């Protein structure tokens, strides 16, 4: 199956990055290569794009999708939390712009055998990097019941986390839980009838939570934000698309912290902390997709784009 993905907030991302034809840019979440293609098309021979992903399928697809601009693109297999070392491996110290499109990509959801979706039957997997040892199977069948309850509550904001964790423990005591639809049925049956009738699929929040745990996504986002800000050249921009409140909160707080200057009490006559703002916020509120984009691509509905710009050192 071809690895395709509809790029969300595409024009907003391109505009926010202020792309210079001879600049150096990073697409930290290559995915279906849509954003990478459009960034690279704006570069001349003096420009360069470094595209990062830990998914071998995404990297293989990019070889074909980016064929026309391949001379301007360097593909790197890496977890985006290690963006600094990934960029350094390309002989680059500073960049003019970085883009993150966080969360699971459409192909990962749509390709049943990847085990991300509660709509297709497949072995429990959910690994973005299929070389890593931890998969959803180990989380569901081997993790302590209280730890499963914790991730369902913290990562999925699932109000029935205790009931679902208990149901998972009962089921796995009889036999291992092996497939996505098997897990989805256990989750559904653990919820009260009213919750099963909600518009949202009963397993959506739990699958999100397990996926985040398998891929250590939230900690990775925190580390990536700090390292990305340090990578930017003065005037360079960091643009981040998020899809749920947990990611967005991390990005918002990282931007806000980096944009804060002196923290001395207001009655101090001079600054003694020495803290300088690293970035300025391009906009205080996130950019949202238009109703037209949501109509074309319902997966864009929850997207938010936040942008900051690196300040020159004083």
Walk me through what this model shows.
The protein has 314 residues and is an alpha/beta fold. It has two domains: 10-101 and 217-310, Rossmann fold, CATH 3.40.50; 112-215, Orthogonal Bundle (DNA polymerase, domain 1), CATH 1.10.150.170. Helix content is 42%, strand content 14%. The chain contains 14 helices and seven strands. It has helices at 10-17, 34-41, 56-65, 83-88, 106-110, 136-142, 145-156, 161-174, 180-190, 193-196, 204-215, 217-231, 245-258, 291-296; strands at residues 24-27, 48-53, 73-77, 95-101, 232-242, 279-281, 304-310. The chain has a seven-stranded mixed beta sheet with strand order 3-2-1-4-5-7-6, sandwiched between helices. β2 (48-53), α3 and β3 form a beta-alpha-beta unit. The longest helix is centred in the C-terminal third of the chain and has 15 residues, at 217-231. The model has no long low-confidence stretch (mean pLDDT 93). It holds the Pfam family Methyltransf_5. It is found in: Cytoplasm. S-adenosyl-L-methionine binds at residues 33-35, 53, 80, 101, 108.
Key attributes of the depicted protein:
314 residues; alpha/beta; Rossmann fold; DNA polymerase, domain 1; 2 domains; seven-stranded mixed sheet; 14 helices; 42% helix
Largest sheet features: 7 strands, mixed
Structural class: alpha/beta
* Number of individual domains: 2
Q: What is the fold-level CATH name, i.e. the topology of the largest domain? A: Rossmann fold
Termini separation comes to 51 Å
**Neighbour order of strands in the largest sheet:** 3-2-1-4-5-7-6
């Amino acid at each position: 199956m071809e690895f395709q993905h509809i790029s969300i907030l595409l024009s907003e991302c391109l505009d926010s990055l202020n792309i210079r034809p001879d600049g150096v840019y990073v697409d930290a979440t290559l995915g279906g290569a849509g954003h990478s293609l459009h960034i690279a098309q704006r570069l001349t021979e003096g420009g360069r794009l470094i595209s990062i992903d830990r998914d071998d399928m995404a990297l293989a697809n990019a070889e074909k999708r980016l064929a026309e601009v391949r001379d301007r693109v360097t593909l790197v297999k890496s977890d985006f939390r290690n963006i600094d070392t990934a960029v350094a491996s390309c002989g680059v110290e500073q960049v003019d712009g970085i883009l993150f499109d966080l969360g699971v990509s459409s192909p990962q959801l749509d390709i049943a055998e990847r085990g991300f979706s509660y709509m297709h039957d497949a072995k429990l997997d959910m690994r973005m990097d299929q070389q890593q040892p931890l998969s959803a199977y180990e989380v569901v069948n081997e993790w302590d019941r209280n730890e499963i309850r914790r991730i369902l509550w913290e990562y999925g904001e699932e109000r029935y986390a205790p009931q679902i964790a208990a149901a998972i423990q009962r089921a796995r005591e009889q036999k291992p839980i092996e497939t996505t639809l098997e897990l989805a049925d256990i989750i559904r049956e653990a919820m009260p009838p009213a919750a099963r009738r909600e518009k949202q699929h009963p397993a959506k929040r739990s699958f999100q939570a397990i996926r985040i745990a398998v891929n250590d996504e939230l900690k990775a986002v925190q580390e990536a934000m700090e390292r990305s800000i340090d990578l930017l050249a003065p005037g360079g921009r960091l643009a981040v698309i998020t899809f749920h409140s947990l990611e967005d909160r991390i990005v918002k707080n990282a931007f806000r912290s980096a944009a804060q200057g002196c923290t001395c009490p207001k009655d101090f006559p001079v600054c003694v902390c020495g803290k300088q703002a690293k970035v300025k916020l391009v906009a205080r509120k996130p950019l949202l997709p238009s109703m037209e984009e949501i109509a074309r691509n319902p997966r864009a509905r929850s997207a938010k784009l936040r942008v900051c710009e690196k300040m020159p050192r004083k």
